[in-house]
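Much of our argument rests on the idea that a fold can be written as discrete symbols. This step matters because it turns folding into a mapping between discrete strings. The record that follows shows the chain in one-letter code together with its fold in token form.
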Amino acid sequence: MHLLIPFAVGDDPASRQTLRNLRLPHLTRLLARLTPQPAEAGADDSPALPHERALAKTLGLDPLVPPWAALQAHDLGLEDAREEAWAFITPSHWQVRQAQVTLLAPEELALAEDESRTLLAAMQPYFAEDGITLIYESPTRWLARGAAFRGLATAAPERAVGRDVAPWLPASPLLRRLQNEMQMLLYTHAVNEARAQRRALAVNSFWISGSGALAAAPVAPAERPLVPQTLMQAALRQDWSAWGQAWEALDATQGAALLAALEQGNAAVRLTLCGERQARTFAVAPRGLWSRLSSIFGAQPLSNVVDKL
């Protein structure tokens, strides 16, 4: 049983202050009994976030360019999931500011299914001209299949939410051109005109992420780590109160379940905590008497453990 937690701490000092004020008994006891593995750090400009790299490594995928969309296509049983290259397309709102353009968190658009499907239908002919097929998955995420995504490094939306999008745009002239064309199409689209009437934000661009192709058969879903999304969602909104509540809920549910599995002798228990810069895994390992006594009498709070992530 492996629990992998994205955004266990954020770069914002408010997240660390929030964490210091939390009581997380199950995770604290769990950490006291597990052995830390070497931290896994990546370059600050790596397209893949620490939790993506950690998860990709666990699943046998390329940790630098994990093909998440191809994995999703495989899980959905889509045709050519193993052979073709795939990407996620996220209908987005780009906020133009004085010195930069930033990305709004996709869920903040509150995009309805009918709006999303209408936009996909309008954009599909332009993508098709470049050999790309769009497939609806959810209002804020479509699958895209095409050779343009093979070997392409792309960053998850979380990399650019609230930040300058420029460093995270894919280095593909074809996709840059397509993005410019879609921005012009969306500017006057009826969906956006209707959204403007009710003072909703416009869908004025799209985000490409999770690109690439599967090199081998992926790990079965039942064997993959549990990856809760609640901390990440709150962190991207910079809602540290909700983030703290998500930590407490996580401790009481999945944290408690992981601790129970460990106490029942499950030697496969693993906990991976991921910040915005690096990740660290804690696993079952043989420990001497002094190490066991130190864990019992000197258990560190979670805030100390994640402080350097």
